[in-house]
Amino acid sequence: MKPINVGLIGIGTVGGGTWTVLNRNAEEITRRAGRPIRITAVADKNVELAQQVTGGSARVTADAFALVNDPEIDIVVELIGGYGVAKELVMQAIANGKHVVTANKALLAVHGTEIFTAAQQKGVMVAFEAAVAGGIPIIKALREGLTANRIEWAAGIINGTTNFILSEMRDKGLSFADVLAEAQRLGYAEADPTFDIEGVDAAHKATLIASIAYGIPVQFDKAYVEGITKLEASDIRYAEQLGYRIKLLGIAKRRENGVELRVHPTLIPAKRLIANVEGAMNAVVVKGDAVGTTLYYGKGAGAEPTASAVIADLVDVTRLATADPEHRVPHLAFQPNAMSNLPILPMSEIETGNYLRLRVEDKAGVLADVTRILADQGISIDAMLQREPEEGETDIIILTHVCSESAALAAVAKVEALAAVKAQVKRIRLEELQ
After folding, report:
1. Angle, alpha carbons 216-146-245 (nearest 5°)
2. Do residues 431 and 155 lie in contact, with contact meaning Cβ atoms separated by under 8 Å?
3. CB-neighbour burial class of residue 327 (10 A; exposed 0-12, middle 13-18, buried 19+)
C-alpha cells in the first residue's frame, strides 16, 4: 500500500527522537498502521543538523512553509513550539488539507478552538497526544478509554521540572533557589525556567485535560495559575510531619455550576500513589463515575518518550485518514455540535482544605485568637502542629477542613492583622484526592 508521507517541522530533541523511533520500529509500526509511515521531508533552520540526523534519506529545507505547501506531504508534524510561526504553519497545513500532529500545548491551550474549528471545516485531524504528559497516553485515555464515564475530576503532576525541584527540596532540605540551579545544571530546567516554575506549562496542559474531560472550549485565559517559587523547605518539612507531600498539581474538577481549572502547589496525603511520584516523572489521576479512580504514570518529557506519543498519533491519523470525518474521534472527545457551555469557575468559588503556617509570638492567648477568627469564618481545624519556641517566637501549622477560597482569604487577612503574628501567613491549598 502507498506509504503515508510525513513532513517534520523541527528536528531538535523530540523531532530527532521521532525520526529515530519511527525508523527503528518501522516494521511494527507499519503492521499496526496498515501502511508504511515515512518522514520524507524535514524543515529546520539548522539544515546541517537535519541532514546529519536524516543521513540524506529525507529532503531537508530551512523553509517550513515550503514543506506545508508541498502537495506530496500527507501529515505535518509540528515540533517547534510557541504561539507565533507555529500557528501560521499549522493553519496553513490545515488550509492545504493536511492532517497535523503536534506536541505544542501552548499553541493549543491558547488557540485550540480556532485550530480545531478550522480542521473540522476542512475535514482533517489535529492530533496532540504528545502535548500533555509526554509519553503517557492520557489524551487517548480521556478521549476514548474513559468515554463511558462522567469525569468527576482529574489531577496531575504534569510538569517534570517542578516535580524534580520539589522532590529534591524534600529529600535534601535545600532551598528552592539551590535546587533550581541544580535542575538547570542537569538539564531539567531551561535557562529561563519561568513557564515551568510559575505553573504556566502545567496550566497549558491542564486546560487541554479540562476541555477533553468536559467537552468545553479551551480557555487557558480563565485558568488560575500559581507556581512554586514561594515555597520554602520548612513548609515541605512540616507537611511531611503531618502526613502530606507538596506537589504542583493541575486540577480540573466538575461542579454543578461549572468547572474548576487551576494549577497551584497542593498538599496531598502521603499515602496517595500520586504523592509518591518523584523526580522528573509525571502522573495524572482521573476519577470517573463508573470506573472509579485511575492513575497514569510515566515520563513526561524527553526525546523518545515524547516521540512515542507523536508516532502513536501518526498511526492513528494513518488508520483514519480515509474515514468519513464525521466518524473519527472528535478533537475534544465530544461532538463539535455538542460542546458544553459550562463556565470556568472563578477562584472565589473554589473549595479546598488549607495548610496555614503562622509565625507568632510565644505567649498565651495567641492560638485562641487564631482559632476564633477561623471559627468566625466557618473554618474548622483538622490538625495542628506547634514548634518549639526560638527567641520568643514559634511556628504554628494548622490544617483546615474544606472551606471556600473567600473564607480562607478573609481569615488569613484577619490573622495577619493580629499584633502577635510576626510575618505573612503561608497558605497552601490541600486536596485529599479521595
Report:
1. 85
2. yes
3. exposed
Q: Span 95-115, mean pLDDT? A: 97
pLDDT at 1: 77
CATH topology of domain 138-299: Dihydrodipicolinate Reductase; domain 2 (3.30.360)
Cα 134 from Cα 153, distance rounded (Å): 20
Distance CA 159, CA 179 (A): 15
Please give the average per-residue pLDDT across 45-74, as a whole number: 96
Q: Which residues are catalytic?
A: 205
Residue 367: count other Cβ atoms within 10 Å of its Cβ. Answer: 16
Which grid coordinates belong to 337?
Answer: 455540535
Amino acid at 105: K
Q: Residue 113 above 90 pLDDT?
A: yes
d(C-alpha 225, C-alpha 246), whole Å: 16
Burial (0-12, 13-18, 19+ Cβ within 10 Å), 379? buried
pTM: predicted TM-score of the whole model, two decimal places? 0.95
Q: Sign of dihedral through CA atoms 13, 18, 21, 24?
A: negative
What percent of the chain is modeled with pLDDT above 90?
Answer: 89
Distance (Å) of CA 217 to CA 123, 210, 250: 19, 9, 17
Residue-wise pLDDT for 266-324, tens only, equals 999 999 999 999 999 999 999 999 999 999 999 998 899 999 999 999 999 999 877 77
Q: Per-domain residue ranges for the chain? A: 4-135+303-338, 138-299, 351-430
Grid cell listed for 65: 512553509
Type of residue at 269: P
Residue predicted with more confidence, 339 or 101: 101
| Reduced DSSP (H G I as helix, E B as strand, rest coil) percent helix, strand, coil of the chain, to 5 | 40, 25, 30
Q: Examine the pLDDT at 391 and tell me if it is beyond 90.
A: no
End-to-end CA distance of the chain: 50
- CATH class name, domain 4-135+303-338: alpha beta
Mean pLDDT on 54-68: 96
- How many whole angstroms separate alpha carbon 277 and alpha carbon 291? 22
- What is the average pLDDT across 225-230? 97
Architecture of domain 351-430: 2-Layer Sandwich (3.30)
